[in-house]
Write a structure and sequence with these properties.
The complex is a heterodimer of chains A (339) and B (261). Chain A is of the alpha+beta class and 339 residues long. Chain A has ten helices and 18 strands. In chain A, helix 6 links the parallel strand 7 and strand 8. The chains are: A alpha+beta (339), B mainly alpha (261).
């Protein structure tokens, strides 16, 4: 049996159905992400796992124990909040020690554990600081130390990086991952950022309107979206109508097909292409966006507008609006998707 | 242009402030003068009115009674309001709107009207309340409620109540422990500021005290009223003592509310 088992979980607030029939299993030490747009029910699901919201239906098992009706105090689950939720009247040290104090751990033992955790999150020297005297990244590290010091069975992270600036976010997510690996912590991470999810997770559970629409390893979710929602959420997939796709690629698909912007090539004269590459099709540049290392072109093929990503190599000239070119598609990466 | 404008503004502000301070200064001067009759300046200065006032057992009793009523009302307000606001903000946030209307009610009815209403209501009651400090404590509680509710609910909105309590729960704390160890210490400043503000307001309250209790339980304001026929120097000393006390309370309230920001 898996370490965590979520079975037929359902929750509604009055007439509003937040999520229904949620089923998944997590292995010990696994890092999983609940990914989805705002309002898809991922944070409420996390709160239900923590016991902060009661579920209407279903069961939740951790390490062979049914914890569906266990209070949050008894669940032994740690959580890091988007708002940090640090106790403003307590110093860093006291915040981290709070959980140990509630458990009745002796002061000397608590001091050693707190020191260890503060070192782990690299905040030594800040023990006597109050949360208001710390930066966002430091606050979130205190919150992480506070959640970890009680040795939780599962660590829940509710969009912990959302309130931070890009640079801090990058370093903190790496730090979270390192600590998770070091402590072999079973972790459930909630985010709406697909890039973050792909970087951190062993597996991703992609949610939409209260249901898990696809689950799997990041590369599976990214390369094999099962429906239009996943395709549009996971990247800038081009969605091509079934009729057009059948005509272009000689298919017999009943469904739309999705193709990633990086799976479309601009034909270069003199270069040899393999058999999995389609015949060239004439296209026109509509516009372009410079995304740093990538140039994103919007191109028109017949009546369809597609997105094509090219690496921004200095040798490649930026193509102007209205330029004509020929597009080729990687046929192996054309993916039929449900509506 | 800018400088002359500034000078004009300063002159107006200092002028009005000075005008407002004249009666206070005159009262202060009068309270320190041994006698001041037909002359422009006092005949001499003395502390005798203050020593007479501060050794008057009737004054000390009245002051003690006022303190008792005000402190008791505030304690009652704190004991009831603090958990109530916590329940409203944590469990029923929608009720905050209802409370904001309810707390305005004590101000909507003039004190004379509501005190006459209270007299009628409790006149025939089997429990003798009119003329006792208890009816004043109950009434003052309703007056303190808006001050306390507003200040404390402001403090609640500045902390992330739900996440703090949730975090405490997950770390093993009960709701009571979360409230006592985390929420309450963060409300301390707002609570003290509102308490001092209500205290200064209640200490000066006269209408309810006069109509509901009167001389049966002489408070500071009733004492002041009853002493109006005695020496003007004595009542000036009384007013200045009261004023100094209120000034200290207001200063403390401002200090605490500034610390809260």
């Amino acid at each position: 049996m898996s370490y965590v088992k979520v079975s037929q979980l359902a929750k509604s607030f009055g007439d509003v159905n937040v999520f229904q029939d949620i089923n998944f299993e997590i292995e010990k030490g696994e890092f999983i992400t609940l990914l989805g747009p705002s309002g898809c029910g991922k944070s409420t699901l996390l709160r239900c796992i923590a016991g902060l919201n009661q579920v209407d239906n279903g069961e939740l098992w951790v390490d062979g124990e049914n914890i569906t009706d266990v209070s949050p105090q008894q669940r032994e689950i740690g959580m890091v909040f988007q708002s940090y939720a640090l106790f403003p009247n307590m110093t860093v040290e006291d915040n981290v020690a709070f959980g140990l104090k509630m458990k009745g751990i002796s002061k000397s033992e608590a001091r050693t554990e707190v020191k260890k955790m503060i070192d782990l999150v690299e905040l030594d020297g800040k023990e006597k600081f109050y949360p208001s005297e710390l930066s966002g990244g430091q606050r979130q590290r205190v919150a992480l130390a506070r959640a970890l010091v009680v040795k939780p069975r599962i660590l829940l992270l509710d969009e912990p990086l959302s309130a931070l600036d890009a640079k801090i976010r990058k370093s903190l997510r790496q730090q979270i991952l390192n600590i998770q690996r070091e402590l072999n912590l079973t972790t459930v991470f909630v985010t709406h950022d697909q890039e973050e999810a792909m970087l951190l997770s062993d597996r991703i559970f992609l949610m939409d309107q209260g249901s898990i629409v696809q689950q799997g390893k990041p590369e599976e979710i990214y390369t094999k979206p099962v429906n239009e929602f996943v395709a549009s959420f996971m990247g800038h997939y081009n969605l091509i109508e079934a009729d057009t796709a059948n005509q272009w690629f000689n298919l017999a698909s009943q469904e739309k097909v999705a193709i990633r912007p990086e799976s479309i090539y601009i034909r270069e004269a003199g270069r040899q292409y393999g058999e999995h590459i389609s015949a060239p099709m004439p296209a026109t540049i509509v516009s372009h966006q410079l995304l740093g290392n990538v140039i994103r072109y919007n191109v028109k093929v017949e009546e369809n507008e597609l997105t094509v990503d090219l690496l921004n190599r200095s040798s490649e000239r930026l193509m102007a609006k209205g330029s004509s070119l020929e597009l080729m598609f990687n046929l192996n990466e054309i993916q039929p998707v449900r509506a | 242009m800018h400088n002359s404008n500034l000078t004009l503004h300063k002159t107006i502000v200092y002028g009005i402030s000075g005008l407002l301070f004249i009666p206070i200064f005159a009262t202060l001067l009068y309270s320190f003068s041994s006698s001041w009759g037909a002359t422009i300046l006092p005949d001499g200065f003395s502390l005798k009115w203050y020593s007479q006032l501060l050794t008057d057992p009737r004054f000390l009793d009245a002051f003690g009674r006022s303190l008792f009523i005000c402190i008791a009302s505030l304690l009652l307000a704190m004991v009831l309001v603090l958990p109530m606001i916590f329940v409203i903000f944590y469990y029923y946030p929608a009720l905050d709107k209802v409370m904001n209307i309810l707390i305005l009610l004590p101000f909507a009815v003039p004190p004379v009207v509501s005190s006459v209403g209270l007299l009628q209501l409790y006149a025939d009651s089997s429990i003798q309340l009119v003329g006792t400090p208890w009816i004043l404590i109950g009434t003052y509680f309703t007056i303190a409620l808006p001050f306390m509710y507003r200040a404390i609910s402001n403090s609640f909105t500045t902390i992330n109540l739900r996440d703090l309590v949730d975090a405490a729960h997950l770390l093993g704390a009960s709701t009571t422990k979360a409230y006592l160890l985390i929420i309450l210490p963060n409300l301390k400043k707002g609570l003290l500021a509102s308490a001092f503000l209500s205290f200064s307001f209640l200490l000066g309250e006269f209408v309810f005290a006069n109509i509901l209790v009167g001389t049966r339980y002489e408070t500071l304001q009733i004492y002041l009223y009853n002493m109006r026929q005695t020496s003007g120097h004595f009542t000036s000393a009384l007013v200045m003592t009261y004023f100094a006390f209120i000034f200290v309370c207001t200063w403390l309230a401002t200090r605490f509310s500034r610390g809260n920001q």
